[in-house]
Amino acid sequence: MNSKYLVVFAIMLMSALVNAQNRFEAHIFDAEANSPLVGANAAVKGSTIGATTDQEGKIVLNNVPDGAQTILISFVGYETREMQFEFPLETEEPQVIYLFPKGEEMEEVIISATRSRRTIADLPTRVEVISGEELGEKGNMKPGDIRMLLNETTGIRTQQTSATSYNSSIRIQGLDGKYTQLLKDGYPLYSGFSGGLSLLQIVPLDLQQVEVIKGASSTLYGGGAIAGLVNLVSKKPTEAGELNFLLNGTSALGLDVSSFYSNKWDKIGTTVFASYNYGNPYDPADIGLTAIPEFNRYTVNPRLFYYINDRTTLEVGVNTVIEERTGGNIDFIKGEEVQDPYFERNNTERITTRAGFDQYYLDGSYLSVKNSFSFFERKIEIPDFVFSGDQFASFNEVAYNFGSTEMEWIAGLNLNVDSFEEDPNPQAQVVDYNHITYGAFLQNNWSVSQTFSLETGLRADYQNEYGFFVLPRLSAMFNFSENVTARVGGGLGYKTPTIFTEDAERIQFRYVLPIDVSQTEAERSIGLNLDVNYRTELFKTIDFSLNTLLFYTKVNDPLILSNAGGEFYEYTQPAGYIDTKGLEANMRFKYGNFKLFTGYTLADVNRHYGGETTEMPLVAQHRLNNVLVYEIEESLVIGLEGYYYGPQDLNDGTTGQDYWIFGLMTEKKWEDFSIFLNFENFTDTRQTGFDTIYTGSISDPQFRDIYAPVDGFVINGGVKIRI
């Protein structure tokens, strides 16, 4: 008898428990912009029940108990809301909840480079973001490419590798450009043969934000991210629609015309970006050689989005870039008769396809599938030598994000292909290669408590030429108070050898011998960093923040290009290593309509071979960047910039002079359009003004290292139209 009652009681109890589990669904919006908040958090107070909004601002909480419950709705930079509900709810209709911005206390952007759905303030990994108005203002200065966007960031420098053709690479914390990985929307972008022109062929008008992670990042995206990575995040379609035009002209007779369109209709969305960029041959030093080459570039990038349902999206797109770029003897380029002219001609064609599939689930997890194919053809021609070939690259990845807001997991598999086939060259040995990399990764983000978060990751790669690589990574964040946050992290990295480096780019790959795989190993690295962020209000009127980063990266068995006798060059791996250590300090003051940004970089980069230590060439050990901005929101921006570069050791054994660069930017805004006018380098600081860029004759110049600007004072201005 007693057993029967127990069974009945157990059944009733289980039934009650089942019936007590409720579902809470809501859409969370920005109260001012009336736009969905992606990555906002909702949680049942006093429980472990929580979730994060998807791309539509939708959130679902399952298993909410019966009775009065308090739902906490929060998002970084917005006022937290506490809302009382009685469960079960009277209606199953989703709640519509609006959050109000706090102001400028914190950045609330979602970071995609870390593969997590968390905001910048919630990540143990240190990420720097250029977005919003700052992105637009920096884009005004050089609307034709992204060099200015990156070069003005503390700890980053765009290094010019060609005196006459403008070719440039990204250097993070003083390390060569080959150690920085460039991404667009998480897809690897422009590497190998295409790397030397990458910064010159990316137009910023269609960008939503730029994310920079400094230090060991190979665990996130594989080989090549030893110094760090830069992720360019594109705009996506919105129901409000967007149509932008930009027209820019320069005093050097350059021209930039760009347009961006996006819209979303029910299940279909699209973005289309197109641009034309022209450069006139320009020689401000009147030495007979171009500081700005002649170039014509066409870019078309359409993307189509199919929203299968509110949780499933399919995206396909193609990016086409065609460019002709010629630098050298300016009279020859202008069509005049010149005896024995020097020139450097780069003709490139690039077609990149990409496809992505995203599936979001009710429990907050999501599946991501990515694929891209890139076909790149480049021909470099100088007097008496031609180097040309085709590069094919493919990126394939499946990643699954699951868990809770407190314990998030990301697991994935990827396949990368990078191959190069040189056109037949009777003057040198071909340098073909075919690299295939299979990878698997697992990452965990753990919010241990309100004051401590931990991010761990592990990647295992197999490369067909250089074998296995196991890459652990660890980052931790400490929230000591509302004003003080600290992060510490580190990890391992690697880089598989190819001939495509800054040193080879400088000599147009002329007579560079192929790499002997049997005699070389992959470059391996270890990186560590520690940063502390402090925010406060001075005198109750000035918003102040200070961020200090200490960093150290060591690269073992670096690949060195050296003379092999006569005209030939070969890559060797002498016993030793390269390391960079130093600090970055960023201060920000805001008073009324005024903002002051000051950044300082100390980069001590050295080569250690055979028991001897020498400084790495082309590294300014001390660098200072200052920007003072007066801004009336949505009306007027005026900015004054000043950048200092310390002395740099050069490859010929000399030391380059230190220098300052100053600029003035202005933009007047109206509702649908704005006009901008910039005076870049108005003190006309040029290497040709205080040093030389070549020795020998103008018909056979032997170029020295380029460590300072060569284009000098340039005015640019234009109009932006928003429809």
Question: Layout of SSEs?
Answer:
Layout: H1 2-19, E1 22-30, E2 41-44, E3 50-52, E4 58-64, E5 67-74, E6 81-87, E7 95-99, E8 128-131, H2 132-141, H3 147-151, E9 156-160, E10 168-172, E11 180-184, E12 187-188, E13 207-214, H4 218-221, E14 228-234, E15 242-250, E16 255-265, E17 268-279, E18 294-309, E19 312-328, H5 330-333, E20 343-360, E21 366-382, E22 385-403, E23 407-422, E24 433-447, E25 452-463, E26 467-479, E27 484-495, H6 502-506, E28 523-538, E29 542-556, E30 560-565, E31 568-572, E32 576-591, E33 594-609, E34 612-615, E35 622-632, E36 636-645, E37 648-649, E38 655-656, E39 659-669, E40 673-680, H7 687-690, E41 694-696, E42 701-703, E43 714-722
Parallel strand pairs: 1-7, 11-14
Antiparallel strand pairs: 1-4, 2-3, 2-5, 5-6, 8-13, 9-10, 11-12, 13-14, 15-16, 15-43, 16-17, 17-18, 18-19, 19-20, 20-21, 21-22, 22-23, 23-24, 24-25, 25-26, 26-27, 27-28, 28-29, 29-32, 30-31, 32-33, 33-34, 33-35, 35-36, 36-39, 37-38, 39-40, 40-43, 41-42
